[in-house]
Amino acid sequence: MFDFLKLAAQIVLKPFALEDKESAKKFLLDLINGIKPLAASNKIKLDDALLKHLQFVLNNDALFSYVYNLILNQLRTAEIVFESADEDTILELCENTVPDHAEYPEAINPVVIISLVSQIISMINAIKNK
Q: What's the CA gap between 27 and 42, in Å, rounded?
């Protein structure tokens, strides 16, 4: 089953170059925009607060660059790196680089973003461990 999912992911990701920041951002935006109507049509309740945070990161160029580079560096090394997101950097980027078209800046909690990034890094490290 793992091999099937791996091949399926390669086909889905083929039009995108995830090592390119803008292509990765487009993939993630397309993914979120595709998931929302699919969830609605299947009566699946999504966590709107989580989606708002993800969209905030994607729409904030400085914050996305930081998170993208952090995750990319985790993927590029074979070692298990236990560094996590720098909380001070994320707090500063959330407060000082609000995107022009941010819909929900008052609802954004930097701690949630730090937690998301840390969880992604933990998942990458778990995959490396296997």
A: 22
Q: How far is CA 7 from CA 42, 65, 75, 115, 127, in A?
A: 25, 28, 19, 29, 17
Provide block-wise average pLDDT over 10 residues at a time, the chain (130 residues): 75 80 88 86 82 86 88 78 71 70 60 81 77
pTM for the model stands at: 0.70
Chain center to CA of 43: 24
Q: Is 125 helix (H, G, I), strand (E, B) or coil?
A: helix
Distance CA 73, CA 125 (A): 12
Name residues whose C-beta falls within 8 Å of residue 83's C-beta, 6 or more positions apart in sequence: 121
Stated as kind and residue range, the H or E segment containing 2 is helix 2-13
